[in-house]
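Thread amino acids onto this structure.
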């Protein structure tokens, strides 16, 4: 009898079982039914092949700052099995390299060349001043230690935030190690993004300078001033002639100014948008780069990995009673039928997983409504023991809708609260603000969902001694439609609060009654309404995760 890779026993009439069912079972080992050799782990490679694979992964790791941006899933899947210690060493090496590179560029562009030194001489002088020559005081050493410790603590917090996204059926420590390994692997990629942003900013600056320079040679040319206008007329006839020529010259200059303005507008309209609006382009590119970086990070964290935890004994999905030696067709603890207790009639997947038959729009609406109105029913549908990854596409659609809802809500708030037409006065600035505000709010909603899945998964898992992060993340993902409603409701009450602060009397009256500034009261009201929304989301997520805590499928 052999234990298959998914933990189920395959019977053999001649070979006894070598694997035990439950938490202490052997997983992944096989014995030939006709041989009595020592068991060999399935999938074990020859030493030569393993060495070649390790060397290939080393080269992939060296190229990972670039390949992560182009093919994050492929890069993360190749490096998912590397040891955490090696990834930490890679993180330390890249951090030191980035630090040295920052010193080099700082010393290069701070004017050292003007003092007759080259870039490497300036770099050596700066490095000696920072490390070799200067002796640090105890306070400076403590400050540096505090900064480095805060940096490492921030990476650990980031790993905790993304931990539910890539969790599978495994021990909680394994989920954390995978998340921390992903953070260490991803860390150099933002530096590449910063370099690309710097190159784009340099191109924008050069294009703006070329725009102003090239326009100097654009016709028309200014008309020359007549020589007769330079002198002072003496007689009355000379004054009349002088006035006539002055009027002609003034008319020619007006025509020149009009032609010059038309030529400038035509030249300006022919330029790309980043050159016409450089400041707005830079800010928008930064927010787009942040969104792209978050997408790359989640793609690395969500790479497919096989379950590593041994299979658990079957339990009742309603009360958690161990049903390993079930004799009667009912749970002895709660009385549920064996079919319902073992979950054989549940966990068929959410409506979104059957969108090919139902249609994408109908499946999305059904799943979003189910997650908000019947979270316990959704908890019976998701697969907690063998989670699917299709919920991630649902999250992507919800985030896109959240971005659209946030932008439309911002436009509504501006049109209601502003006097006149603000889009006519500052259209480019307004468009850039809309894009950046929409991306920022969407990423905040995503981070809130990840933190909610982490907290609920840890709390429910602590009660049942299981890793419920896969179940809580699935349910939180299907509840991401809640973010769309949150964006719409937030735009409405933000508009009401701002308009009342500007023209209303509610907060003015509350100021006299409570003795607080009306702007402080408005901000507290805004925070209180958002806190209610977060508490409602946590409640729905808790109800759905609690149902899935004893899932067998």
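Threaded sequence (553 positions):
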């Amino acid at each position: 009898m052999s234990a298959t890779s998914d933990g189920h026993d395959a019977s053999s009439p001649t070979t006894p079982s070598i694997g035990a069912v439950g938490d202490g079972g052997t997983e992944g080992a096989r014995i030939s039914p006709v041989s009595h050799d020592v068991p060999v782990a399935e999938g074990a490679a020859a030493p030569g092949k393993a060495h070649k694979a390790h060397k290939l992964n080393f080269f992939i790791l060296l190229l990972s700052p670039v390949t992560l941006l182009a093919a994050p899933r492929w890069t993360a899947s190749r490096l998912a099995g590397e040891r955490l210690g090696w990834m930490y060493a890679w993180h330390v090496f890249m951090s030191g390299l980035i630090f040295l590179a920052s010193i080099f560029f700082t010393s290069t562009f701070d004017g050292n060349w003007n003092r007759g030194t080259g870039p490497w001489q300036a770099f050596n002088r700066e490095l000696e001043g920072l490390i070799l020559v200067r002796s640090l005081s105890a306070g400076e050493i403590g400050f540096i230690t505090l900064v480095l410790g805060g940096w490492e603590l921030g990476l650990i917090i980031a790993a905790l935030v993304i931990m539910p996204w890539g969790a599978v059926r495994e021990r909680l420590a394994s989920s954390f190690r995978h998340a921390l390994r992903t953070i260490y692997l991803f860390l150099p990629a933002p530096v590449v993004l910063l370099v690309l942003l710097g190159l784009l900013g340099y191109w924008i600056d050069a294009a703006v300078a070329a725009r102003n320079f090239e326009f100097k040679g654009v016709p028309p040319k200014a008309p020359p001033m007549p020589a007769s206008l330079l002198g002072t007329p003496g007689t009355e006839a000379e004054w009349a002639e002088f006035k006539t020529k002055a009027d002609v010259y003034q008319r020619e200059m007006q025509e020149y100014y009009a032609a010059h303005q038309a030529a400038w507008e035509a030249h300006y309209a022919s330029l790309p948008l980043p050159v016409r609006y450089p400041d707005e382009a830079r800010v928008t590119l930064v927010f787009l780069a942040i969104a792209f970086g978050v997408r790359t990070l989640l793609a690395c964290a969500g790479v497919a990995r096989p379950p590593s935890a041994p299979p658990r004994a079957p339990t009742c999905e309603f009360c958690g009673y161990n049903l390993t030696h079930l004799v009667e067709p009912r749970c002895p603890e709660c009385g549920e039928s064996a079919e319902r207790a073992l979950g054989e009639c549940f966990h068929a997947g959410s409506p979104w997983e059957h969108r090919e038959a139902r249609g994408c729009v109908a499946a999305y609406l059904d799943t979003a409504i189910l997650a908000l109105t019947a979270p316990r029913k959704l908890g019976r549908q998701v697969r907690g023991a063998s989670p699917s990854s299709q919920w991630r596409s649902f999250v992507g659609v919800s985030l896109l809708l959240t971005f659209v809802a946030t932008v439309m809500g911002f436009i509504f708030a501006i049109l209601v609260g502003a006097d006149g037409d603000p889009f006519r006065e500052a259209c480019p600035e307004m468009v850039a603000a809309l894009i950046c505000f929409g991306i920022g709010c969407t990423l905040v909603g995503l981070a809130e969902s990840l933190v909610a899945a982490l907290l609920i998964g840890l709390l429910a898992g602590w009660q049942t001694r299981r890793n419920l992060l896969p179940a809580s993340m699935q349910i939180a993902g299907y509840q991401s439609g809640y973010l769309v409603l949150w964006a719409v409701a937030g735009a409405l009450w933000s508009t009401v609060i701002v308009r009342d602060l500007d023209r209303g009397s509610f907060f003015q009256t509350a100021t006299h009654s409570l003795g607080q500034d009306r702007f402080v009261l408005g901000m507290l009201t805004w925070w209180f309404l958002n806190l209610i929304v977060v508490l409602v989301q946590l409640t729905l997520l808790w109800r759905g995760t609690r149902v899935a805590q004893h899932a067998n499928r």
